[in-house]
Amino acid sequence: MLPTISYLQRRDRIESYFDRTAADAWARLTSDAPVSGIRATVRAGRAEMRSTLLSWLPTDLRGKRVLDAGCGTGALAVEVARRGAQVTAVDLSPTLVKLAQERLPHDIGYGHIDFRIGDFLDPALGEFDHVVAMDSLIHYDETDVQRALTGLAQRTSTSIVFTFAPRTPLLTLMHVIGRAFPRGDRAPAIEPVAAERLRASLGHQPDLAGWQPARAQRIVRGFYISHGMELERR
Ligand SMILES: C[S@@+](CC[C@H](N)C(=O)[O-])C[C@H]1O[C@@H](n2cnc3c(N)ncnc32)[C@H](O)[C@@H]1O
What we know:
By secondary structure, the chain is an alpha/beta fold. The chain has one domain: Vaccinia Virus protein VP39 (Rossmann fold, 3-Layer(aba) Sandwich). It is built from 8 helices and 7 strands; from the N terminus they run H-H-H-E-H-E-H-E-E-H-E-H-H-E-E. Strands 3-2-1-4-5-7-6 form a 7-stranded mixed β-sheet, sandwiched between helices. The radius of gyration is 17 Å and the shape is globular. The protein starts with a helix and ends with a strand. Bound molecules: S-adenosylmethionine (SAM).
């Protein structure tokens, strides 16, 4: 499936945002360094989402191949590797991938992480048992989120656990306000997605025949609002 122009444009902006504009802030947010009150709530919410997504994966992943799609600084990839998985951790941002490699602990047990710089939709990454995509689809619109999930599903045997930004009054307001600023000055907008509509359309898409949406969990902690969902083979 060829990527849409909107996907490619968005992907370029996400890459420059995470690789340059936000790289330092992101490094700090994902570390143990002290952060302000709002960022502390985001950090707490993200920790809760990470453990929710991990709870939807088998505790024993020995011999399994897992893709961490948009791995950032690699926290989730490390936890998955500790369960014994062979992890491919890919991100658009060379800066964040380098940081993830530097932060890689020595004690990941039988697991292994192969870090890559690139697009998580690249078929050359291979085939997987499970895919995790935490907060890496939140800047794509609903159509591109669905197309990304369809692309990932074609090379995944068991489940995809991912998050999106749910359409809530607060996020819709932030989206509207964000659009009032000049393009170059701001982060790529977070694209709110209607949770029930996404669930219904994922359940009925011909390209996702054989897959069904399963567990879901919304996490709201201060300014962190994210909706986790699992897609599994029937
Ligand atoms: C909000 S961060 C989350 C990072 C990580 N999953 C976490 O939860 O800490 C989103 C990440 O997704 C990456 N990303 C977005 N689109 C991507 C794509 N098409 N291919 C690879 N990485 C992508 C960005 O570069 C960024 O590092």
